[in-house]
Amino acid sequence: MPSSTIAGVHAVPVDVEVDVASGLPSFAIVGLGDTAVLEARDRVRSALRACGFDFPNAHVTVNLAPAPVRKHGTGFDLPIALGILAATGQVPAAVCCAVAVGELGLDGGVRPVAGLLAHAMAARSRDLPLLVSADALSEVSAVSGVSPRPVTSLGTLRHGLPAEGRLGPVEHAAPPTGADFAEVHGQGVAKRALEIAAAGGLGLLMIGPPGTGKTMLARRFPGILPPLTESEILETAAVHSVAGLDIEGILRGVRPFRTPHHTATTAGLVGGGTPPRPGEASLAHNGVLFLDELPEFSPAALQALRQPLEDGHLTLVRAEGRVRYPARFALVAAMNPCPCGFLGDPGRACTCPAAAIERYRTRIGGPLIDRIDITLRVDRVAPSSLLRVPVEESSRCVRERVIAARERCAGRGLPASLSGTSLLAACALGEGERKAVEAAARRHRLSGRGVTRLLRVGRAIADLADSDRVQTDHVLEASCYRVMV
What are phi and psi of 85, to 5 degrees? Predict the structure, then answer.
């Protein structure tokens, strides 16, 4: 009986082999299954009897092949039950010609399991139909080329496979109508920086006293991002599906926006556990990872973000093997300049000792800061501005410019995360622009990576200005977004 198990964000094919032999009645499951797989014995036995089938009074052995691959979860309930029924002639052999994934209730009902999108892709690669819970039809229908066969109960398979069922295509979401840039008073520089970050898929860190609107700005950042493309939808939805999260919004094109609390562990932020599960960095794939109160996060957890910020993926190495998770996200972070929060605030004096300020900032680490494209100061807005009805630009208007800039970037046929000669070719710097970049690098003491980040910001500014090349004013503006932490 074909089935599959999750490894990372992909489904690995597994064949469920059943042997019903004479001997003392017993029910054994072999093949490196975890506790949830071994507990299938009791669920399958009760489900068969509840649906009017006979559980064989014999020696039943179930083998999950290939044996060296670890199997996880309750999705093997359905294929194990169907394998026993087919072996004892209680259902047609045709049911064994489909990939089956589902959890069984004691009444024989079939329930969805995590990772069905990955299971659907595995079924498509094997050119087999997919037997799943009817409640999962909307999820597996997102995968083109697979033939989903919805089933509500074991009893409905008594006469063979059910008919194919598929829902219509999901329409992309309309631009967000909730939190809007128009609600933010002032903060023109921060809004401009967020627009540049959205256009170039860049990371951003806002530094300022409490109450200046850093979190408010960050929560409005998704409203200026373009919808997910068709390929990005499947990539992103697969990660959320494996994590057992709702993927309805992602299927409509809404980019993920993850906001973990600063008490998140390293495993919670980058993934891990037994079996391994994606962390917040992977759940933010093709979207935004917002880290509020950045220095309050564990230093170990923050440093674990260095690889995905550079490579766009995470590789976890465990005793049982390597697991790779996609993690290409835009990092948006916010922090106070010091523990009390008022360093540099003209309205209130900082009360922190110099040593406390140094410890607070070193919790982030220079290598992580070096990987953030834009860092800027966000100061207080005058009370008189807060009491007026704002006449500000809406997120919809900003979003249209961002989409146009990304289309210009895509039109060059090169990815946004350029480096080396490809980035220099995309920037097309003249002699004056080269001197401006060199001056900015000396002024801010930029590393080689920092120069690359500066050029990426300049290229995003040029795209917003509909310019084929990065000009001197673009470089000068980009250099303004390198506030030292």
Answer: -65, -40
